[in-house]
C-alpha cells in the first residue's frame, strides 16, 4: 500500500513538473516523508509492471532509479524556492530519461513516455475539477 502511494506521488510529481511549480511543490511535500530507496523501489515496481521489464533490465532500471532518487532527495527536501526546485528537478529528470532510453527498448521507452503523458492528462483533469 505504501509503495502504491509513493508511486502515485512520484507520478504526480513527474506530471507536475510539466504543469505548474505550485502543483509540483504540493507533490514534493508528500514525498518529503519518503526515502530515496522507497521512491526508487516504487518507481522500479511501477516500471516493471507497466513496461514488462526483462530480468536483465530490472536491475539496471533499479540502479538508475536509485541514482536519481538520491540526486533528487536534496531538491525535494531542500529550502530552495519553487521555481529553482522545478528547474533542478527537470534537469535531473532529463538526465534520467537519457539513461533510461539506453536500457529500455524503443517500444518500452515510448510506453514510458506515453504513460507519463497519460498521467499528466489525468492530473490536469483532476486540477480542472477543483
Structure characterization notes:
It is a single chain. The model has no long low-confidence stretch (mean pLDDT 83). With 130 residues, the chain is mostly helical. Helices cover 84% and strands 0% of the residues. The chain has one domain.
In short:
The chain has 130 residues and is mostly helical. Helices cover 84% and strands 0% of the residues.
Q: Any chance you could write out the topology, listing elements then pairs?
A:
Blueprint (H helix, E strand, L loop, with lengths): L1 H15 L4 H11 L4 H16 L5 H21 L4 H22 L2 H24 L1
Radius of gyration (Å): 14 Å
Number of E-state strands: 0
Strand content: under 5%
Query: What profile does the largest beta sheet have?
Result: none
Question: Terminal Cα separation, in Å?
Answer: 26 Å
SS class? mainly alpha
| Overall spatial form | globular
> Can you tell me the number of structural domains?
1
Helix proportion: over 70%
List the total number of helices: 6
Calculate the mean pLDDT score and round it: 83
Task: List the secondary-structure elements in sequence, H or E.
Answer: HHHHHH
Query: Which consecutive residue ranges, at least 5 long each, have pLDDT under 50?
Result: none
